[in-house]
Each structure stands twice: as structure tokens, then as C-alpha cells.
Amino acid sequence: MIRCRLSPVLRTVANSRSCSRTPSEDAEETEAGKIASFGEAFKKLESFREINSEPKKEKEPPFATLLRNSKFVKLGNPEKKILVGKVYNVFENDIYVDFGGKFPAICKRPARSAIDIVPGTFVRIRLLDMEIASRFLGAEQDLSLLEADATLLGIAHGAKNIDL
């Protein structure tokens, strides 16, 4: 005797149909809500799949499109550009500014309006270099200081909710 594996829905169909039944008995069974044929069982199985399937997600744009439309690419050559950044740390005479680049810009604290510049303040900076990297005294490879070089121009008035 050959045994085969059937799905639970098909197994109930196979067990419910026998040769000894008459068509009138099958009609009574379908009226009671049971499955009478393979086609009906298949349709019921498909309806379960549709109900349990996850909703289709919208296609995300490809990486190339995201990069092309990013603020970083639209900026162009960032050297000598005036940008707005947010001060996130003040330590002695240094101001750490997040302007949206790979590394934060570190600027000297001004002597006049030093009290006005606190963490959370938006400031204008002139970006001189995106990354300070050089071959330092006797080194064979370039070494990065993990910071950007910028000059502080002043407080950016009216810049409250800028998305960095």
C-alpha cells in the first residue's frame, strides 16, 4: 500500500469521500458546510493563503536614487561653503558642531559672544575641509583626526527646526 503525505485540508477531503456514498449524500454534506470536491478544497486553501499573507509593501527606491537625491550630493563641493550646524558640545575654547557631515566640525570659541553659544544653538560655519587627514611626522600612512575643519561665523538667527 502506498502512503502519501497530504495537507490537512486535502486529507479531510480524501477521508470524507468514499466510494460507498451516493451523490445525494454528498449534496447533503456540502449543505452542512463540508468540502465536497478537490476544487472546493483548493479554493478554500487559496482563500486561507490570501487572508494570512502579509500586505504588499511599497517598493523602496534604489540606493542610487536615494544617493542622487540626498542633501550630501546636492551640496556639491563642500569646501568654502557656508553651512548651518547645531552645537552639541562646548569644551573650554572649542565648539563641536554637527553640520551633517561624516565628522563634526570643531571651531574656536569666540571671545565676544562666548556666553550665547551653548549646546543646542544653531550656528553658521564656513567649512574649510570635510576631514582633517594628513601624513604626520614620520608616518607612512595618512592619519585622520576624525574631525572637520571649519570657521565659526556666528549664530544662525531664525534657524530653529533645521533637519541635519
Word description of this protein:
It holds the Pfam family MRP-S35. Keywords: Ribonucleoprotein, Ribosomal protein. It comes from Galendromus occidentalis (western predatory mite). This is 28S ribosomal protein S28, mitochondrial. This protein has helices at 8-16, 23-31, 38-52, 63-68, 71-75, and strands at residues 81-91, 94-98, 105-108, 122-129, 133-134, 143-144, 148-155. With 164 residues, it is α+β, with helices and mostly antiparallel strands. It folds into two domains: 8-52, no CATH class; 77-155, Nucleic acid-binding proteins (OB fold (Dihydrolipoamide Acetyltransferase, E2P)), CATH 2.40.50.140. The strands form two sheets. A five-stranded mixed β-barrel has the order 1-2-3-7-4. Strands 5-6 form a two-stranded antiparallel ribbon. The longest helix has 15 residues, at 38-52. The radius of gyration is 35 Å and the shape is elongated. The model has no long low-confidence stretch (mean pLDDT 76).
Task: Please tag this protein with its features.
164 residues, alpha+beta, OB fold (Dihydrolipoamide Acetyltransferase, E2P), 2 domains, 5-stranded mixed β-barrel, two-stranded antiparallel ribbon
Identify the CATH class of the largest domain.
Answer: Mainly Beta
Quickly count the domains. 2
Helix and strand element order? HHHHHEEEEEEE
Overall morphology: elongated
**Strand element count:** 7
pLDDT under 50 segments (min length 5)? none
Strand order of the biggest β-sheet: 1-2-3-7-4
Helix content: 25-40%
CATH topology of the largest domain: OB fold (Dihydrolipoamide Acetyltransferase, E2P)
The CATH architecture of the largest domain is Beta Barrel
CATH homologous superfamily title of the largest domain: Nucleic acid-binding proteins
**Strand-pairing-aware structural class:** alpha+beta
The number of distinct helices, counting runs of at least 4 residues, comes to 5
| Chain-averaged pLDDT | 76
Biggest sheet features = 5 strands, mixed, barrel
